[in-house]
Amino acid sequence: FGYWYAGSSAAFEFHSLYVLHFLTEAKLLGHAVPEELMKGALKYASETARAEPREWWQAEIQAYAIYLLARNGTNPAPQLLNLRDTLTSRFKGKWEGQTTAAWMAATYMILKQESEGNKLLDTCIKERAGKAGKLAYSWYYYSTPMMGDLQLFYVQCRHFPDRAKKFGIEDLEPIMKPLRDQGFNTLSCSY
Predict the structure, then answer these.
(1) Most buried of the four, 31, 39, 114, 160, by CB within 10 Å?
(2) To 5 degrees, how large is the angle CA 12–CA 20–CA 94?
(3) pLDDT tens track for 21-76
(4) Would you tell me how many other CB atoms lie within 10 Å of the CB of residue 172?
């Protein structure tokens, strides 16, 4: 866990944010998390949240960083608005059905902007359904159709509990399909 002590790493690294997500969940569950480690991870997330995405997949990682900052008590509203403006102007039609929209919707919920969160999540779900099999993925280990489905499922369960209470059997497909197809891995099981 000395990763962030060695100095600044490149922006848009999924694994650094994934570790921060794990540490955040552990801390919320009452586990001891070294404060310096958490500070370093949050500093990295803050840098990523302020970086300029050049590709749509970088915006997805930036949305994840912004979400994690909000989960840890930071108000990332300026970064969220900047990202939304960037997405609308430069990546229109590429992000609305991606987990980018799901992470942003969850951030809006954390910031108590429920109307915007619900609207964005509705758009994300509608776009995913309309583009089934046609969504763009970077195909890195963390950005595949299965991971997108699982992260969207996680966001709905964690931040939209009223929706999750109404889930039917078909809504469990994101977690059932990898198990049925034996296509799960340690990363996919974490969501």
Answers:
(1) 160
(2) 40
(3) 999 999 999 999 999 999 999 999 999 999 999 888 899 999 999 999 999 999 99
(4) 11
Per-residue pLDDT reduced to its tens digit, 48-58: 999 999 888 89
- Pair of tokens at residue 127: 């776009």
- The rounded distance, in Å, linking the Cα atoms of 180 and 173 is 10
Place of tokens 């939209």: 160
Buried-exposed string 132-170: b where 16+ CB fall within 10 A, e elsewhere: eeebebeeeebbbebbbbbbbbbbbbebbeebeeeeeee
CB 56 within 8 A of CB 94: yes
Query: d(Cα 107, Cα 58) in Å, to the nearest integer?
Result: 17
User: Would you give the distance in Å from CA 90 to the centre of its chain?
Assistant: 20
- Tell how far CA 170 is from the center of its chain: 22
C-alpha span between 45 and 66 (Å, rounded): 7
- The per-residue pLDDT for range 173-186, each reduced to its tens digit, is 888 887 888 877 77
